[in-house]
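dumping this here before i forget
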Amino acid sequence: MDQDNPYAASSADLTQVAVPRPGSPVKAVLYAFLLDFVGSHLLGVVLGIAYGTLLTLGGMPLDRLEAHMASLSWYSPYMLTATVLGTMISLLAGFVCARIAKRHEYRYALIAATLTCVLTAWLTWRQLSTTWLSLTLLAYAASLLGAHWGRKVNRKAQVAAG
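structure:
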């Protein structure tokens, strides 16, 4: 009779939780690298287009717009917004890396952050400055903080699994 009752409690043993197994380090680094590199550059393009559109709609001529965008200081509202959002992307990349790898979280997050920074440096070699170096160190710190949070979540899952 209980088998026919759709409202009856299940007879499955729900106390057994699967132990989370470590993931692929290559996949963890690749996903974190793609998230950080592509996400940061896509963010820059979207923010640049949005800011340029706002300035153009405000009446700024195109030749002044190019000069204005090239001379933005790091503490301008546009650059501060881009820095905060880019840092959040690096933080998310470190977290994703840690959650996928489930072991040696800091090591793999550092590898992904290094790949991102080396490729960015190679692509923007002529524009390297102390500001770029500061932003690179900020990205490393954010990636490690994300890895730390991911590591904490991984350890909680291991404790819950028994």
